[in-house]
Amino acid sequence: MKIQSFEVMESNSCPSSSQQPGHGKPPDSLRVSIADRSFTVDKSLLSENCEYFRALFQSGMRECQQEEVHLQCVGVLGFVVMLRVLGGERPTLSSDQIVEAIECTAFLQVPALTKHLIHIVNSENCLLMYHTAATYGVWELYHGSALFIRDMYSDLKEEVHSLPNRLVEYIESLLPSSYMAVCSHSPSTERLQDLQRTVCHLDEDHSEWKVLTHLPVSTSTTMAGVAVLDNKLYIIGGVQDVSKKVVESGFCYDPAANTWSTICGSQQLRYNFTLIGHDGGLYAIGGEFNMKALSSVERYSVSTGSWRFVAPLPCPTALVVSAVAMNRIFICLWRGKGASDIHEYVYEWDQWVLVTTLIREHSYGLHMVAHKDNLYVMRNGPCDDFLLCVMDCYNLSSGQWTAMAGQYGNSKGSLLTAVGRGDSVFTLSRQVTTEYSVEEDKWRVKREMEGFGRIGSIYTFLMRLPQAPVSTMGKVCGSGPDRQRLPQILPMLW
């Protein structure tokens, strides 16, 4: 998917242009030479995206007037990756490309390239990313890859301890992601508080669910939008009762301070909608109002505290299935007759773009989970068995669908609550919480823990929680959570 264009030219493939300066070179462009390769690139592209070239062009020095620049500290592989990213591509990279891309973004100061590297960190490249980012001082990537490693620490412990001590210590100083859940609850009152109205987290060391915080009395999680952005929990909308009167305010929970605050709700009142936290904003997608499906989409900017409408959905839809893969928003829309369309929201164009169509017989529901450059689409099992799920995998790089082996669900819990972390996917039911290991052709059960003993719809997500004594965390049990609240919390290492 191209957003901008550039021209790559090897000097030995076009002798006339290399021998006659200015000939064959587009206006307002620059020839960049690295070793024995030449690249003809639009100056505005370089100036807008590279601090090095912006400073060069504004310096007033003789070099800023030259038609050709020789770069000594950047490799060809890294520069090509940079141009691809600036051209709108989202490439997966080999080890050599990763090292040179990090070198390139360190020397030329290219935020878009750094951002892309953070978004493609995975279990296969995270240690290389981390060590190389530390070497070249790309601190945003250093921190992002360290967070990923912290979430997979138990799986990568042996490899991690081959790193220098200071790098190991930084990883261990970070907080891991916790698997979280909250059920659907209507608002209550101060006088008649419902002790079930809690946000809970999974204590993986003790394999049990514990209370993190109680919902504010006026908050509704029934048919609400629930999402995490910048490690804060947002609850938008929701209905007050069977009348489906929408709660107009939004609510935000900050685990670092253990406090709730209110924000303005979306301009279009809505329920049964999807809320996605992404890249500094919240996206309220589709839903219903007055029993009518909506196609409108709104984006909330945390920096400005305001909502604005963005491109609407291709069709009115409630409970839109969604996932974020490689920092790209994808939704799955049921089209009928066994067809489901995967669309991507392209922020630069403010458009929903059709990516692919899956044609299968579906029954009760869909869910979608991202892992690396794969989208896993879950649907209910054979004979309309809503207790079993089957999966298909779409690879964004190859554009190919693959039917995954096996069936999932039943006593293992519904995959319609699945959340990915590292190379694992967590899902739950009232009986059991299951961690799956994502493998090439199937998901394998890794371990089972205590179930989430609540009824009703469940929202699941990940958050990084500050450390607190275990005794202060209320345990979730069948009769309701402990009344204890979190004490004053130490600042998060974030």
Helices, strands, pairings?
Layout: E1 7-9, H1 15-19, E2 29-34, E3 37-42, H2 43-49, H3 51-58, E4 68-70, H4 76-86, H5 95-108, H6 111-119, H7 126-136, H8 139-151, H9 153-160, H10 165-173, E5 177-183, E6 198-203, E7 208-214, E8 224-229, E9 232-237, E10 249-254, E11 259-264, E12 274-278, E13 281-285, E14 288-289, E15 292-293, E16 297-301, E17 306-310, E18 321-325, E19 328-336, E20 339-346, E21 351-359, E22 366-371, E23 374-381, E24 385-395, E25 400-403, E26 408-409, E27 414-421, E28 424-428, E29 432-438, E30 443-450, E31 458-464, E32 474-475
Parallel strand pairs: 2-4
Antiparallel strand pairs: 1-3, 2-3, 5-6, 5-31, 6-7, 7-32, 8-9, 9-10, 10-11, 12-13, 13-16, 14-15, 16-17, 18-19, 19-20, 20-21, 22-23, 23-24, 24-25, 24-26, 27-28, 28-29, 29-30
Structural class by secondary-structure content: alpha+beta
Taken as a percent bin, the fraction of beta residues is: 35-45%
Q: Which regions are unreliable across 5 or more consecutive residues at pLDDT < 50?
A: 1-23, 469-473, 477-494
Q: Please state the average pLDDT score.
A: 86
What does the overall shape look like? globular
Alpha plus pi helix count = 10
Rg for CA atoms: 25 Å
CATH architect. name of the domain at 7-120: 2-Layer Sandwich
Give the full name of the CATH homologous superfamily of the domain at 7-120.
Potassium Channel Kv1.1, Chain A
CATH first level of the domain at 7-120: which class? Alpha Beta
